[in-house]
């Protein structure tokens, strides 16, 4: 072939391989090398067009956790213009941040996203060099938990990470006031309405709440009476049958034990109930809300044998270092002292009904604290929510994932 003097052609993301008689160089015959030198003698009997041969470039993509914790994904090879090869869904974490995916800048808000949270490609590779992708972390909003003072009845409002959760709420009378309280806070939508267990005095208020707020989904523990199997809930002998019509158009979810469960954008460990018990109380949910450095344990009306089973089923780290422990069953049944010792709660919340049972709950909690020794008595508080049929204030817990501020706003 006669010599050619034009400049070498270029194409972004590709390497020039010479001149070929086919647009796909891998299927053609080379007539000029990539140095524009003759590769062979001309062997055709007609005029022809030679095509530039282009080999796509492959680059190495590495990963940087960007202040996160966990295992850094192995680097991958990707061809220019191709979708990113699938990587494992990430399990990396960062206290009080939510993982957003992998980006080409340490500040994900100013970056291009290359991987989604589940490890799938977010865009074709469009760079002409090796790159490092950074984990994108969105800071969580402040968490607020209102432990409502409803007397004997439980009622807990959790707001954080654009998620609003309400647990229980009491019987219809305090339910009304729980509704007023939620309205006074400007709550319009409840992402998750949770029943700790299917006792009327805990969840009857759900009817009022469903009537007054946009409830996205409801969650109940597995129980012979769980309203997911609504035909059993329709049994007239089973309270709260009034709930059933209201639940007809709302997704009902049954929560079963599972670590690392999301409700909305909040992280939970669901520890119990295990086997269906004939005791509705013992079918109470054990829910630990995990928020940054803090854990908040909700127990419904659970009892001693369930705590023993939680103790023997899970690694102790799951229920150690609890920031606030909601004492089960209105303080009526003690929690095993060894369990409390592992939890080492900074605060204990005990809802109560009457002055006399409030007194025994004080005794119960104090005796547990007593067993933990003098040091704990000095550093930990036990808090008892006051008697009353209406919402008489609340204990507010606020956390940014690091700090925890607990304020007593009972009236
Ligand atoms: Zn109960």
Write structural notes for this entry:
With 411 residues, this protein is an alpha/beta fold. The chain has 3 domains: 14-56, no CATH class; 58-139, Sandwich (Immunoglobulin-like); 143-410, Ribonuclease Z/Hydroxyacylglutathione hydrolase-like (Metallo-beta-lactamase, Chain A), CATH 3.60.15. Helices cover 18% and strands 32% of the residues. Strand 17 and strand 18 (294-298) form a beta hairpin. Helix 1 (172-184) packs parallel to helix 3. It is elongated. It binds zinc ion. Zinc ion (ZN) binds at residues 197, 199, 202, 280-281, 301.
* Unreliable residue stretches: 227-242
Distance between the termini: 97 Å
On the 0 to 100 scale, the average pLDDT is 83
Supply the number of structural domains.
Answer: 3
Number of helices: 9
> What gyration radius follows from the Cα positions, in whole Å?
31 Å
């Amino acid at each position: 072939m006669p010599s050619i003097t034009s400049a070498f052609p270029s194409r972004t993301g590709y390497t020039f391989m010479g001149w070929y008689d086919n647009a796909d160089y891998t299927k053609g015959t080379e007539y000029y090398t990539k140095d524009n030198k003759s590769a062979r003698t001309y062997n055709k009997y007609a005029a022809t067009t030679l095509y530039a041969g282009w080999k796509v470039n492959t680059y190495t993509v590495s990963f940087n956790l960007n202040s996160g914790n966990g295992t850094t994904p192995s680097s991958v090879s990707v061809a220019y213009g191709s979708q990113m090869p699938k990587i494992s869904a990430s399990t990396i974490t960062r206290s009080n941040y939510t993982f957003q995916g992998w980006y080409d800048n340490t500040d994900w808000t100013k970056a291009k996203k290359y991987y989604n949270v589940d490890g799938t490609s977010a865009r074709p590779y469009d760079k002409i060099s090796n790159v490092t992708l950074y984990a994108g972390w969105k800071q969580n909003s402040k968490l607020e938990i209102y432990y409502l003072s409803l007397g004997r009845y439980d009622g807990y409002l959790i707001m954080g990470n654009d998620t609003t959760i309400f647990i229980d709420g009491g019987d219809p009378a305090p339910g009304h006031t729980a509704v007023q309280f939620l309205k006074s806070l400007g709550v319009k939508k409840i992402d998750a309405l949770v029943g700790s267990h299917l006792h009327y005095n805990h969840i009857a208020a759900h009817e009022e709440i469903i009537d007054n707020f946009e409830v996205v989904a409801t969650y109940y523990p597995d129980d012979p009476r769980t309203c997911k199997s609504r035909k059993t809930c329709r049994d007239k002998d089973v309270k709260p049958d009034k709930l059933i019509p209201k639940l007809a158009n709302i997704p009902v979810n049954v929560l079963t034990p599972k670590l690392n469960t999301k409700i909305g954008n909040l992280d939970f460990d669901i520890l119990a109930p295990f086997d269906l018990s004939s005791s509705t109380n013992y079918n109470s949910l054990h829910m630990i809300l995990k928020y940054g450095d803090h854990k908040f344990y909700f127990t419904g009306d659970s009892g001693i044998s369930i705590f023993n089973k939680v103790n023997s089923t899970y690694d102790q780290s799951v229920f150690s270092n609890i920031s606030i422990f909601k004492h089960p069953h209105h303080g009526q049944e003690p929690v095993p002292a060894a369990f409390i010792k592992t939890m080492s709660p900074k605060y204990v919340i005990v809802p109560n009904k009457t002055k006399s049972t409030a007194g025994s709950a004080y005794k119960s909690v104090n005796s547990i604290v007593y067993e933990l020794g003098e040091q704990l008595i000095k550093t930990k508080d036990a808090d008892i929510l006051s008697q009353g049929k209406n919402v008489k204030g609340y204990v507010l817990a606020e956390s940014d994932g690091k700090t925890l501020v607990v304020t007593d706003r009972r009236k």
